[in-house]
UniProtKB/TrEMBL annotation:
Compartment(s): Lysosome membrane
Protein name from the UniProt record: Lysosomal dipeptide transporter MFSD1
Gene: mfsd1
Molecular function per GO: transmembrane transporter activity
Keyword Transmembrane: yes
Length: 467
């Protein structure tokens, strides 16, 4: 969230902590062991980045194995998309309480371990459901997995805020997002190969081979759980050496604040839901789409379906820096939405090489994330940020759950062309909302669409007035 550096006293501040961190029993401490030293914090950052790797790797296991899941379990597409809906359902509520649980109930260290356990156990239940050919058990596993997945992302950001100064924070968030997309990309391109190797060992395809493949994927969740345990140890050690408090999210959630949200924030919510429901459900169904429409091999289909995540990994930090330097957030959101609509229309109505459309989709997806989410901090006061972001994530997950089920039903009954038209309609709703946002913001003074220089000047004037 915005203004993290103003909410927490970040690691390395103050002479007392620094001097304490450099001495142990009167002897100088090695740099890699010194919590106040950059080298040690880079090691911590490495564990932070891998903390969410397993969650993002396993989230799209169904998409990477779409053909195998449908065939081995004898499902239709609507039932298949329930696996994504059941991930989103718990987060319709938990987005409000994830920060509260970390701050007031568990603490950041224990909370991160608990959420990592939910992710790990959920993936194991998911795999066990496939092994015994009980789809309801797979749905239960995705529900448990979802309880941990989104809250673990909150914990990951909290660790970042607690360990890194303000000038480093944007880079750290960018690196964490990049590693998340690496997890998604590796999943898309490796799970089909894992399944084929398991089939060779088992002797034939089927639910047993599918369950074993998903169980192998659970190893990445176990790896992330180990990272959570190491992070807890390192954070506890730093707390003792530097005499700092345990990190908190800074989120104060008050549902009564919802009635005070301005119209600009509600338009941002509409853009968020209308846009993301045309991205994640499409990727969840994309593999078979590229096989059927473009005659791609399964390996080629997995590769082109993962290009959105491949591009997002390096592009997110770069595009985030560009938006920081230029401002004009609303204009960038309009550009991202228009390009996304163009990409979906190419996929729907042409037979052009889908690498073009998917590459455009990857850049647009990264640009929108960099420009849209920070706008929330421009339209609500700081004490309402936790509620605003929680509500935004909540309705996003509600939209994803409903649209995932709708997309599966549309595909079963009408085919891919109607499904793509449906996704284009969702993008058009987001486009209308962002154009309306532009005019409403203009009439209210243009706070959301100011240039970076204008924002810096206003902030300087406000600081001078406060002094």
């Amino acid at each position: 969230m915005a203004d993290y550096e103003e909410r927490r006293s970040l690691l390395g501040d103050g002479d007392e902590g620094s001097s304490a961190g450099r001495r142990t029993a009167g002897r100088p401490m090695w740099a890699i062991c010194d919590p106040s030293h950059l080298l040690h914090r880079v090691v911590v950052l490495l564990f932070m980045c891998f903390l969410g790797f397993g969650s993002y790797f396993c989230y799209d296991n169904p998409a990477a194995l779409q053909t195998q899941v449908i065939q081995d379990l004898n499902l239709n597409t609507a039932k298949f998309m329930q696996l994504y809906a059941w991930y989103s359902w718990p987060n319709v509520v938990l987005c409000f309480f994830g920060g509260f649980l970390l701050d007031r109930v568990f603490g950041i260290r224990l909370g991160t371990i608990i959420f990592s356990l939910f992710v790990c156990v959920g993936q194991v239940i998911f795999a066990a459901g496939a092994l015994v050919n009980h789809f309801w058990l797979m749905e239960a596993g995705r529900f448990v997995f979802g309880i941990g997945g989104e809250s673990l992302a909150v914990a990951q950001n909290t660790y970042a805020v607690n360990w890194f100064k303000g000038k480093e924070l944007n880079l750290v968030f960018g690196l964490q997002l990049s590693m998340a997309r690496v997890g998604s990309t590796v999943n898309m391109n490796i799970m089909g190969w894992v399944y084929s190797k398991v089939v060779d060992l088992v002797g034939s395809p089927g639910h047993t081979a599918l369950g074993a493949s998903l169980l192998i994927a659970a190893v990445t969740c176990l790896f992330s759980l180990i990272c959570a345990l190491v992070l807890a140890f390192l954070d506890k050690r730093a707390e003792k050496i530097l005499h700092k408090e345990e990190g908190k999210t800074g989120e104060v959630v008050k549902l009564t604040d919802v009635k005070d949200f301005p119209i600009t924030l509600w338009l941002i919510f509409i853009i968020c839901v209308g846009y993301y429901v045309a991205i994640f459900p499409f990727i969840g169904l994309g593999q078979v789409f590229f096989i059927e429409k473009f005659n791609f091999s399964p390996a080629e289909a997995r590769a082109v379906n993962s290009i959105v995540y491949i591009i997002s990994a390096p592009a997110s930090p770069v595009l985030g820096l560009m938006v920081d330097k230029t401002g004009r957030n609303v204009v960038w959101v309009i550009i991202a939405v228009v390009f996304t609509l163009a990409a979906h229309m190419m996929l729907a109505f042409t037979f052009w090489n889908p690498w073009i459309a998917m590459s455009l989709l990857g850049v647009s997806y990264s640009l929108l994330a960099c420009a849209l989410w920070p706008m929330v901090a421009f339209v609500v006061p700081e004490h309402q940020l936790g509620t605003a972001y929680g509500f935004m994530q909540s309705i996003q997950n509600l939209g994803l759950a409903l649209i995932a089920m709708a997309a599966g039903s549309i595909l079963d009954n009408r085919g891919y062309l109607v499904l793509e038209v449906f996704f284009c309609t969702c993008i058009c709703i987001a486009l209308m909302a962002v154009v309306l946002l532009y005019f409403v913001d203009y009439l209210r003074g243009g706070d959301l669409n100011r240039s970076a220089a204008a924002r810096a000047k206003l902030q300087k004037e406000a600081t001078s007035a406060a002094e």
